[in-house]
Design brief:
Blueprint lengths: L1 E2 L10 H25 L3 H12 L7 E2 L2 H22 L2 H4 L3 H27 L10 H11 L4 H10 L2 E3 L3 H28 L12 H35 L5 H21 L4 H13 L7 H26 L6 H26 L8 H9 L5 H12 L5 H29 L3 E3 L17 E6 L20 E8 L2 E3 L12 E6 L5
Antiparallel strand pairs: 1-2, 3-4, 5-8, 6-7, 6-8
Helix pairs in contact: 1-2, 2-12, 3-11, 3-12, 3-15, 5-6, 5-8, 5-13, 6-8, 7-16, 8-9, 8-11, 8-15, 9-10, 9-11, 10-11, 10-12, 13-14, 13-16, 15-16
Length: 501
């Protein structure tokens, strides 16, 4: 249910809800251009916009927090699915160990260091009775989730890639990090509320710790197993069922990924992990039908999911309640950014000596917080964890700090560390889907030197394996042939690959 302050005098029937949402979404789209121009993460602007429209702003209030949590979980599901589909095993395989150890050992080190910092330094300052050790570890587990959409939206808006294979490392870490953080959060919530783990009550001491470890291991293992099974099942199905269009394949992939999520959850596994793994398996099909159309579909719904999720989480925030936790939140945020996260990164990457100090430094700085931690903090509120509202407010403040501090400086830091590779201009493919085995598309601008031996395309004497498939001249497109006379400035779209002649 949505309500608005009486002063606005809007009766929120179905039409008016759609009107309100359309205005908010349109405003978010417009301010995203501002964020891209000045290097500010669009996610931060979406959050702020939601806060301005929320209970302490225009007065829009979401009364059903369970529905809000469900919609937020659906949003992060879509984002992880899209990330998995875009993950190239060919690029990721060389850095698989680094990415996975960051999302496991790195996460544990960050949680323990941050949790004990909260307990010994801030525990007595949050709430009248302070926060228990388990509560402090819960806060740390919630905050251990990194926000890959924010990282890559900033990098891609500036058309940057990173040296030392940092792109696939960060992509794999953030994709597998969210499910791990979510599992740990759910386990700690279950222990704190006394609901038990794996159907059993958890006692204190060694047995309790062992049960938590076993539960976490089972969730991850079951999630990976279900994800691999559903992913290969999806590949088998798509090779035998020939659909008429790309959108139908996109909907099929979305449905099968949600199936993986549900099946894993049914057996006590990690649904987000299952969905992410299934998406990786599906996305790396060499013969994935309508691959380009599928990619565009998921790019669109991922943007929509990110936008709506950050707006929704902004609407849940109560800025008037933030000052009570602002000081401890700032201290914790500074510790997490400058100590907790770097400690987890540097310790977990000790075996990988080829990674330079500057690369490790950037990985530490790229651990941005965003929608994931805020969404996971809602688990504490919905499960009546003691101090759950305070935990939510602390996490929200830290997410804002991280997006503001790290998000706005991510590109300058990458450039300062000399880790940036500027993207080549985007190649015009005219909507064509080029299979990888056929080769790569490249652009070439015709120069005067190219025409020394003659003005025609035939006079270029192109090397074996190179074909000009289109010529763009003054905004017009020309289908090439050998006798076509070229002009300086013509843009040749070239296919580079092996041929049989």
């Amino acid at each position: 249910m949505l309500t608005v302050l009486p002063a606005i005098a809007i009766h929120l029937g179905t039409g008016n809800i759609l009107l309100l949402l359309s205005v908010l979404v349109l405003a978010a789209i417009l301010i995203s251009r501002l964020g891209a121009k000045y290097g500010v993460p669009g996610m931060l602007l979406f959050l702020i916009l939601g806060m301005l429209a929320g209970p302490d702003g225009l007065g829009v209030e979401i009364g059903n927090h369970e529905l809000a949590e469900f919609l937020g979980h659906l949003g992060i599901t879509v984002i992880l699915l899209s990330g998995g589909l875009e993950t190239s095993l060919r690029e990721t395989r060389p850095v698989m160990k680094q990415g996975l150890i960051l999302s496991t050992l790195g996460l544990v080190v960050t949680v323990l260091s941050t949790g004990f910092f909260v307990y010994f330094v801030l525990g007595s300052r949050v709430g009248s009775a302070g926060v228990s050790l388990l509560g402090c570890l819960l806060i740390a587990a919630i905050l251990s989730s990194t926000d890959s959409p924010s990282v890559f939206s900033v990098l891609r808006s500036k058309r940057l890639h990173l040296r030392e294979n940092l792109d696939p490392i960060l992509e794999l870490e953030s994709g597998s990090n969210d499910p791990m953080a979510y599992s740990l959060t759910l386990i700690l919530v279950a222990v704190i509320t006394g609901s038990g783990v794996m159907g059993l009550k958890v006692s204190t001491g060694f047995v309790g710790v062992l049960m938590v470890i076993l539960s976490l291991a089972w969730q991850v293992a079951a999630g990976i197993g279900v994800g691999i099974g559903v992913g290969h099942g999806a590949r088998w199905l798509m090779r035998r069922v020939h659909l008429e269009s790309g959108p139908l394949y996109s909907i099929m992939i979305l449905t099968l990924a949600l199936l993986a999520n549900g099946l894993a959850s049914l057996i006590g596994g990690n649904g987000l992990m299952a969905l992410y793994v299934a998406a990786i398996v599906i996305g790396n099909m060499r013969d994935l039908p309508f691959k380009k159309d599928v990619g565009k579909f998921f790019e669109s719904i991922t943007w929509l999911a990110q936008l709506l999720m950050f707006l929704l989480l902004g609407l849940l925030a109560r800025p008037s309640h933030m000052p009570a936790v602002l000081w401890p939140a700032l201290l914790l945020g500074v510790f997490l950014i400058f100590v907790g996260r770097p400690l987890g990164v540097f310790i977990s990457l000790i075996p990988f000596r080829r990674l330079s100090l500057r690369a490790r430094t950037f990985i530490s700085w790229a651990g941005m917080k965003g929608a994931g931690p805020i969404l996971f903090a809602m688990c504490a509120v919905l499960n009546d964890v003691e101090g759950g509202t305070q935990i939510f407010n602390i996490v929200f403040c830290i997410a804002l700090l991280s997006l503001l501090l790290q998000g706005t400086t991510l590109v300058p830091v990458a450039r300062k560390l000399d880790l940036c590779i500027e993207d080549d201009p985007e190649v015009e493919s005219f909507g064509m889907e080029i299979p990888e085995e056929m080769g790569m598309l490249r652009d070439h601008i015709v120069s005067a030197e190219d025409l020394v031996k003659g003005p025609t395309l035939r006079d270029l004497h192109l090397p074996h394996g190179i074909r000009v498939i289109m010529v763009r001249r003054e905004g017009k497109f020309i289908v090439p042939h050998g006798s076509l006379e070229l002009k300086v400035g013509d843009n040749l779209v070239i296919l580079m690959g092996d041929t049989e002649d």
